[in-house]
């Protein structure tokens, strides 16, 4: 995560503390009572990707800790497709009572720039609850690939061009944007091959059906086991989980993308319930076992208030609008 993003998040958190407290006081007695009783039945976390990817793994980890705090089951439900818009649309239409929540990802901030019409308004129809984590994407190649470094891959791209290909977790996903940024940096035209999530894309990489992949942190165990080679990470700085793997920016100045994950509810969810969920999230983000799990999967926890997360989302939507215009990616 860049220093500018961190500064923005920290400022938003501080500014929002008072607002969050006021929201609790302003909520009427009925809302306060509802928040005290929440949750009284199972809560659903909707993941917008196929099972097995980084978002799914994170959701199941967070669900376990939320379930312990709430003494209620927290069920992870996959609603993949549409570049994450199917899952978002489902939650946006759900009853605004806090029992159906969206595992929101960076891709949700990209979608408004890609589609002429979405069945929901991301910033209006989904209420920000809490940020969860931030992590890099990992540029990986098959174990038997001749490319042992980012420099090797860049040289091959410049020489082979469109005869090479890269996979992604879907059209206009962050890994797709990363691949197109790499094309721009090298002047190459490597062919993009989209998959319905990181898991199937990574399967293709293991089978040597694609040349390289910007994978999320679900690929980390395979990197550590030597099943694939990691050439670089997409965050501005090196990841503590992979200290010997260089950042893309060390070779391509300014190349920086990351994968944030948050929790969102249908618009209209009572503020007292949003605040109560946020409070539980802040508690579990301090749990030593959860922090250890995050560290092992190259994730950094992101404490936040609902208002702070809301400001962050708006900034991300604007950032990716500018980036997609620069790269020239547009979906109908």
Notable characteristics:
45% helix, 332 residues, 13 helices, D-Maltodextrin-Binding Protein, domain 2, six-stranded mixed sheet, alpha/beta, globular, five-stranded mixed sheet, 2 domains
Q: How would the global form be characterised?
A: globular
**How many DSSP H or I helices?**
13
Give the % helix. Answer: 40-55%
Q: Secondary-structure element sequence?
A: HHEHEHEHHEEHEHEHEHEEHHEH
Count of spatially separate domains: 2
Give the number of DSSP strands.
11
- Remind me, CATH topology of the largest domain? D-Maltodextrin-Binding Protein, domain 2
Largest sheet strand order: 2-1-3-10-4-11
Question: Over the alpha carbons, how many angstroms does the gyration radius reach?
Answer: 20 Å
Largest sheet: 6 strands, mixed
Taking all residues together, what is the mean pLDDT?
89
> Tell me, what is the CATH class of the largest domain?
Alpha Beta
Give the N-terminus to C-terminus distance in angstroms: 30 Å
CATH architecture of the largest domain: 3-Layer(aba) Sandwich
Structural class: alpha/beta
Fourth CATH level, the homologous superfamily of the largest domain: Bordetella uptake gene, domain 1
């Amino acid at each position: 995560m860049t220093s500018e993003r961190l500064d923005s998040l920290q400022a938003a958190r501080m500014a929002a503390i008072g607002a969050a407290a006021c929201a609790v006081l302003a909520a009427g007695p009925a809302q306060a009572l509802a928040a005290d009783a929440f949750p009284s039945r199972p809560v659903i976390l909707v993941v917008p990707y196929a099972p097995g990817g980084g978002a799914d793994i994170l959701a199941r980890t967070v669900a376990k800790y939320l379930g312990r705090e709430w003494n209620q089951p927290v069920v992870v439900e996959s609603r993949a497709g549409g570049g994450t818009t199917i899952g978002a649309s489902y939650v946006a239409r759900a009853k605004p009572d806090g029992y159906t929540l969206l595992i929101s990802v960076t891709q949700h901030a990209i979608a408004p720039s890609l589609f002429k019409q979405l069945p929901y308004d991301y910033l209006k129809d989904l209420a920000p609850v809490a940020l969860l984590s931030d992590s890099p994407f990992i540029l990986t190649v098959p174990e038997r690939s001749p490319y042992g470094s980012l420099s090797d891959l860049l040289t091959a791209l410049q020489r082979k061009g469109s005869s090479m290909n890269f996979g992604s977790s879907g059209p206009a996903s962050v890994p797709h944007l990363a691949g197109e940024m790499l094309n721009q940096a090298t002047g190459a035209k490597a062919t993009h091959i989209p998959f319905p999530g990181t898991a199937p894309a990574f399967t293709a990489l293991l089978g040597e059906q694609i040349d390289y992949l910007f994978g999320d942190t679900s690929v980390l165990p395979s990197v550590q086991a030597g099943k694939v080679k990691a050439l670089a990470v997409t965050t501005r700085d090196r990841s503590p989980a992979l200290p010997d793997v260089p950042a893309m920016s060390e070779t391509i100045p300014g190349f920086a993308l990351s994968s944030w994950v948050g929790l969102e509810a249908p618009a209209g969810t009572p503020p007292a319930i949003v605040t109560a969920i946020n409070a539980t999230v802040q508690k579990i983000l301090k749990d030593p076992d959860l922090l250890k799990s995050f560290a092992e999967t190259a994730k950094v926890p992101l404490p936040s208030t609902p208002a702070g997360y809301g400001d962050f989302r708006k900034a991300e939507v604007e950032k990716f609008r500018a980036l997609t215009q620069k790269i020239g990616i547009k979906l109908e």
